[in-house]
Automatic annotation (TrEMBL):
Keyword flag Magnesium: yes
PROSITE patterns associated with the record: AA_TRNA_LIGASE_II
InterPro entries noted in UniProt: aa-tRNA-synth_II, aa-tRNA-synth_II/BPL/LPL, Phe-tRNA-synth_IIc_asu, Phe-tRNA_ligase_II_N, Phe_tRNA_ligase_alpha1_bac, Phenylalanyl-tRNA_Synthase, tRNA-bd_arm
Molecular function in Gene Ontology: ATP binding; magnesium ion binding; phenylalanine-tRNA ligase activity; tRNA binding
Record family assignment: Belongs to the class-II aminoacyl-tRNA synthetase family. Phe-tRNA synthetase alpha subunit type 1 subfamily.
Entry-linked CDD domains: PheRS_alpha_core
Gene source species: Cryomorpha ignava
Major localization class: cytoplasm
Protein name as catalogued: Phenylalanine--tRNA ligase alpha subunit
PANTHER family reported in the protein's UniProt record: PHENYLALANINE--TRNA LIGASE, MITOCHONDRIAL, PHENYLALANYL-TRNA SYNTHETASE
This protein's record includes keyword Ligase: yes
Co-factor requirement: Mg(2+)
Annotated binding of Mg(2+), by residue: E244
Length: 333
């Protein structure tokens, strides 16, 4: 009776307290087990009553546990009305930026033929951005017009191209070198629908024994066909301080109508990159012997190619992060 009163008046405010209560009475070394062990001391004619009392105690404990459990759960809200069998909502995934889409595609195309990816700092010194690349001291590209300088003497600037990464690789690796250097570059230019002060480039570099202009042309043609589909390329003579000879590459952007051979899509030739044979002075500056090795380099702007690929009319759209613009690329690769 005493024990029964104890049980009935027990109160718990947490699941832990309730568990301690359960162990105390129903556990292996609990009160009820202990009392059952005393059965042998009970006179045979009283054993039946004794057993029934024990069972009644057991039931009382269980009853108390059940009712307290309900009270605790409704208090803490662990028993919720949520329907756990309901299907979950779809996760809203973002989309890749068109510049990233194009950059990834260019990277894959070159990785497929053995180029690896190299990276370097966006804040560069004069040596890696200009001097090692054979820019004469008074070259206009060093001018305040084109370059964002951070410090003067010694000059520190935001890199104007990722050719600086090529220099860093040549300084630290031995040929054969086969890398592409994708990344953000900066030029102090007026912002318009066609140009921006920030843009992205992928530059490439291949150095080994006996690398020729023909190798370069083949590599670029392979890229153009892989990226643009059935097309042809054209090289026009050009000038860069770090390559000699240098060329500008156009790809034929336009599909000929098979019936009357008129171009029904695209606008003819599209300039996509600069390229050339690495100038011996550049090899020398980075510690590579130009009498043993030769190589080619190329560089292209990602924005221009992305604008062509997705028919984007204004480069500024690529930097405004307008969600309505970005959403259009959902599901593209
Ligand atoms: N660095 C050049 C630019 O930014 C591109 C280029 C790279 C041209 C390599 C030739 C060879 O315009």
């Amino acid at each position: 009776e005493e024990i029964e009163n104890e049980i009935k008046s027990f109160n718990a405010s947490s699941a832990d307290e309730l568990e301690a209560f359960r162990v105390k009475y129903l556990g292996k070394k609990g009160v009820i087990k202990e009392m059952s062990a005393r059965m042998k001391d009970v006179a045979p004619e009283d054993r039946k009553d004794f057993g029934q009392s024990l069972n009644a105690l057991k039931d009382a404990v269980q009853e108390r546990i059940d009712s307290l459990k309900e009270a605790i759960e409704s208090q803490s809200g662990t028993e919720s009305n949520e329907d756990l069998t309901r299907p979950s909502g779809l996760e809203q995934a973002g989309s890749r930026h068109p510049v990233t889409l194009v950059r990834n595609e260019i990277e894959t195309i070159f990785q497929n033929i053995g180029f690896s990816i190299a990276e370097g700092p966006e804040i560069e010194d004069d040596w890696h951005n200009f001097s090692a690349l054979n820019f004469p001291e008074e070259h206009p590209a060093r001018d305040m017009q084109d370059t964002f300088f951070i410090e003067k003497d010694p000059d520190i600037a935001l890199r104007t191209h990722t050719s600086s990464v090529q220099v860093r690789i040549m300084e630290t690796q031995k040929p054969p070198i086969r890398i592409i250097a994708p990344g953000r570059v900066y030029r102090n230019e007026d912002i318009s629908s066609r140009s921006h002060c920030i843009f992205h480039q992928v530059e490439g570099l291949y150095i080994d024994k006996g690398v020729s202009f023909a190798d370069m042309k083949q590599t670029i043609e392979y890229f153009a066909k892989a990226f643009f589909g059935k097309t042809k390329i054209r090289l026009r003579p050009s000038y860069f301080p770090f390559t000699e000879p240098s060329a500008e590459v156009d790809v034929y952007w336009g599909l000929e109508n098979e019936i009357d051979h008129r171009i029904t899509k695209g606008t003819g030739w599209l300039e996509i990159m600069g390229c050339g044979m690495v100038d011996p002075n550049v090899l020398k500056a980075s510690g590579i012997d130009p009498d043993i090795y030769s190589g080619f380099a190329f560089g292209m702007g990602i924005e221009r190619i992305a604008m062509n690929r997705f028919q984007i009319g204004d480069i500024r759209m690529l930097f405004e992060n307008d969600i309505r613009f970005l959403k259009q690329f959902q599901g593209a690769w």
